[in-house]
Structures are given as C-alpha cells and as structure tokens.
Design goal:
Blueprint lengths: L5 E2 L1 H15 L6 E7 L5 E7 L2 E3 L2 E7 L3 H9 L1 E8 L4 E11 L2 H9 L3 H9 L9 H14 L10 E15 L7 E7 L6 E6 L2
Antiparallel strand pairs: 1-10, 2-3, 2-6, 4-5, 5-8, 6-7, 7-8, 8-9, 9-10
Helix pairs in contact: 4-5
C-alpha cells in the first residue's frame, strides 16, 4: 500500500477493523493482550476490544485477575490483532489505565444477565477445585439478584493508550508490507516509517 509520511493510526485501524468485521468469521475484535509483572515476566492472553475512547483501546476484566495484577504493577502492555481472513495484523504498545467507573457501569449494564452473574461468580485466576463449585456459585448469585445486577467493584474496564502502532500486511514470498507509527514532534500527528519485513 502507498504510505503517507503522516497518518492517523486510529482512522487507519478503524478502516482495517471495519474490513475485518465483514470478513472474519468470529470475533474480529479478539486481540492478544500482553502484560508484564514488576519482575519482568511476560504473559499473554486473548481479550475482546469493546470500544475505542479518545484514541485508547478499551477491554473489560476482573480487577483481581493475573492480567490486572500485572497492569497495576507496571501500567504497561501491548495488544495485537491478527485477521487471518485479510492476512493483516495490527500491533500497539502503550500505557494501560482503568477507565472511569461510569464507563464500566454503562458497559456492564448492557451485558447479558448470564455474563453479569458470571462476573460475580468467577474468582478469576484463582484455583478451582471443581466445575461443580463454579456452577453452584453461579446459582447462588442468580438467587441473590433479580434482573438488576450491579457491577461488582472487582470488575471493570482498562484502556490501553498507544505510544506506537505497527501495521502489517502479508506479502508474496514473505516480503510483507510493514510500517510503524510513532508520535511526531508535530502536534497531534503520527509519523509513519516503512520497515523491512
């Protein structure tokens, strides 16, 4: 693809994301989230992009999970989208912060009842003695709440604010098209540079 020296990476991401929504069979919003502990040990897992707010990429999770512990320790992370149907990948790194409670409350209120109950029932990242224990916890919380299920304090959103983007397009003979965007010294602009694959 032709590369302008100055690009808006959010606009380009949204263009690629819209194409992925039409082509990708399942979960075009699935992204690999990498975090790192204060001891420098990395870990990665798949989460779902739920929104882009002011240029930050928002996902939701249990604040007592391993990923949350590592985010609270370092405030850093990386996310990567790979759309096999398009042979495209977008990677970004940046700072991660909690979203405002109001944003988490609004998203939580739109989740299915089962997902809201699950947020209460799951003690994410902790040992579980049996599946039956989890099912019983779900039943307990179903009995505790009617349809008005409040968001638990231990569950909510995070937002990754990118300081670098990489856009990657598959190429013949592994001569991929790869370019990285970093903030330009010019106000509110990003500078794009092509890299060897």
């Amino acid at each position: 693809m032709e590369l302008d020296k100055l690009l808006d990476p959010i606009q380009l991401f949204e263009t690629w994301f819209d194409e992925a929504k039409k082509k990708e069979l399942r979960d075009p919003n699935a992204m690999q989230l990498a975090t790192v502990s204060k001891d420098g040990m990395p870990s990665v897992r798949t989460v779902l992009l739920k929104d882009i707010i002011d240029g930050s990429f928002v996902f939701y999770t249990n604040y007592e999970s391993r990923k949350s512990d590592e985010i609270f320790q370092t405030g850093k992370g990386a996310i990567c989208f790979y759309w096999k149907s398009l042979n495209r990948q977008v990677r970004m790194v940046g700072q991660i912060t909690k979203v405002d409670k109001e944003i988490s409350d609004l998203y939580f209120s739109k989740r299915s009842k089962g997902s809201r109950v699950g947020a209460w029932a799951s003690m994410q990242s902790r040992p579980l003695d049996s599946r039956k224990t989890l099912i019983n916890r779900v039943k307990d919380f179903e009995n505790k709440f009617d349809n008005d299920i409040p968001r638990p304090d231990h569950w909510g959103g995070f937002a990754l604010s990118p300081i670098e983007f990489e856009f990657w397009q598959d190429g013949e003979f592994r001569l991929h098209d790869r370019f990285i965007l970093k903030p330009s010294k010019k106000l509110k602009l990003w500078e794009a540079n092509r890299y060897y694959p």
